Amino acid sequence: MQEVVVHPGSIDEALASKAARAEIPPERLADVVLPSRTLAPAQRVEIYQRMYLLRMEEALGIDYPALQHFLGPRGFRDLVRDYVASFPSRSYTLNRLGDHLPAFVLTAIGRRHRGFCHDLARLELAMTEVFDAVETPTLSAEAVAAVRAEAWATARLRPIAAFRLLALRYPVNAYVQSLRGRGHRHPRPLRKDGWVAVYRRHYGVHRLELSRPAYRLLSELAAGASLGEAVSVAARRPGRSAAGQTQLYRWFREWMSKGLFMGLEGLEPSTNRL
Amino acid sequence: MNRWNFPDLGIGVGLRTVHFGHILSRRPAVDWFEVLSENFMDTGGHPLWVLDQVAERYPIALHGVSMSIGSTDPLDREYLRKLKSLAARTRARWVSDHLCWTGVAGRNVHDLLPMPYHEEALRHTAARVRQVSEILERPLVLENPSSYVEFASSAMTEWDFLSRLAQEADCGLLLDVNNVYVSSFNHGFDPRVYIDNVPADRVVQYHVAGHTNKGTHILDTHSDHAVAEVWELFRRSCRRTGNVSTLYEWDEDIPDFDVLHAEALKARAYREEPAAPPVRVARGA
To answer: Across the strands, what pairs with A194?
Structure first.
């Protein structure tokens, strides 16, 4: 029955499929499923089959509303049909059904919009991951103030669990934002590099656009580098101007105010004033 | 009173995302909330925070859709571990799921698929229910499903299967009177016979809901007010069981909270009638 329920074609095609035939040949369906007063066995099974793809589309539409909007109802439905055939749910929860969708988009969407859809799906997956991440405390201003100036070079800032960084090749963050406003004045799906931090604050999911140097610095910190190492690595990249002290200060002040970090590590006890 | 002395919590509704703000800000006078387990098992974000607030103020019962108790796949131990943890966190009064399977061979189609009702299926399911009850350290409560398919291999009615399962696995029952009505329409049996033959002392909760009549069959959509026939079945069953925790389900086209709550409170009129044994409808009538 399961092979018929998940088949994307008509009920006749589903019953005649190789996988379904291996269980029950279509001509023997009536030996297994009883008719009702009004429906033949195949029509009764079809009720479950029709609901399957609708349910998958609904679940993925909740996680990928911008991608659904961009592709349109028919395009998204086709994508869902092909996706769940390749990546059916193997979990008790639908929350993880869409985990492979960004990668799948690369193989399923035509070349013209492939890159844009891939980035859009990556951004929306990051948003759902951040939405569901465990709540972690944020680094307090008092904890920061207690660190002696000379200790900062070796300090490692741990980002909160609800935090993701993305380097994007298309203006998908602006696209997502355009869906929130009236009129839906979407950016065109043309190449434009961008960098975004997705994070959660007071249980709301937010997106912060970053400059390339700020993204690079945050990436190093998120990977576990000390502050000194991160600043040094970020400044070493060729062809790009290093961030000055004032810029660094502005960034950290903003990141701290948004609660992007949960803790400080790598501090010698003697270098902490508390 | 049921055999485990699970309390009558009164009349509750399902905790749904669209009502989070209303519930937290208005603190409506709802007796209790039913929580869809899977919606809260893998999140550490806003839903779980809301659930913690609600569980502080209202009694909670957990209701799941993915246990797949009738499947031939092994029980999902990780799922059960998380379910147990959520039950402890919310101080859930009981934990329920459905008499169904949701997938085999490692897949989950996320539907409540019907089972054949025969001796082998009964033994298989009873053993799994006992296992789950041991793991959860509480009796599992199982809901009768609505279904659109009947199997030729079934050797007994659904109510006989459910009754024997409850006895052999020592589990509780969540009697969904709308599901009884939906299945009776789809399969052509008298819903009163079903109601009259469920073991009354094992019923720990009721579901009442709306459905969609497609003419040739009824879909269990939880998208509307309950029809009079469903309320009559509820009345009939309450006379057998006495007052039991009652939950109104509304999961599609969900209305404002006050509309939902008003629909749920209709149950009062049927629950509070003096108990009187109904005229029993003979099997096969």
So the answer is: A168
Q: Which of A46, A53, A92, A160 to mutate to test the interface with B (most CBs of B within 10 A)?
A: A92
Q: Are the C-beta atoms of A259 and A197 separated by less than 8 Å? A: no
User: pLDDT (tens digit, 9 = 90+) per residue, B37-91?
Assistant: 999 999 999 999 999 999 999 999 999 999 999 999 999 999 999 999 999 999 9
Residues A225-261: tens digit of each pLDDT: 999 998 887 777 655 555 677 888 899 999 999 999 9
Report the candidate in B136, B148, B154 with the shortest Cα–Cα distance to residue B64: B136
The separation between the first and the last C-alpha atoms of chain A, rounded to the nearest angstrom, is 65
Token pair of B148 as six digits: 């659109």
Q: ipTM of this model?
A: 0.92
Strands B32-36 and B11-14: parallel
Give the tokens for residue B46: 């806003």
Q: Which residues contact A242 (CB under 8 A, 6 or more apart)?
A: A213, A234, A235
The mean of the pLDDT values for chain A is 92
Q: Are B110 and A38 a contacting pair at CB < 8 A? A: no
Q: What are phi and psi of A67, to 5 degrees?
A: -65, -40
β-pairing, A163-168 with A194-201? antiparallel
Matching residue, tokens 């008499």? B99
Q: How far is A88 from chain B (nearest CA, A)?
A: 7
Domains of chain B: 11-271 (3.20.20.150)
> What residues of chain B lie within 8 A of the CB of A33, using their CB?
149-152
Among chain A residues, CA nearest to B47: A132
**Chain A contact for B113 (CB, 8 A cutoff):** yes
Q: Say how far apart CA A62 and CA A95 lie, in whole Å.
A: 10
**How far is residue B98's CA from residue B77's CA, in Å, rounded to a whole number?**
17
The answer to whether residue B74 neighbours chain A at the CB level (below 8 Å) is no
Interface of B with A in 134-193 (CB under 8 A): 148-153, 186-188
Q: Which two tokens stand for residue A214?
A: 């700020």
Interaxial angle between packed helices A227-236 and A212-222, expressed in degrees from 0 to 180 and rounded to the nearest 10: 140
Give per-residue pLDDT as tens, A214-235.
Answer: 999 999 999 999 999 988 877 7
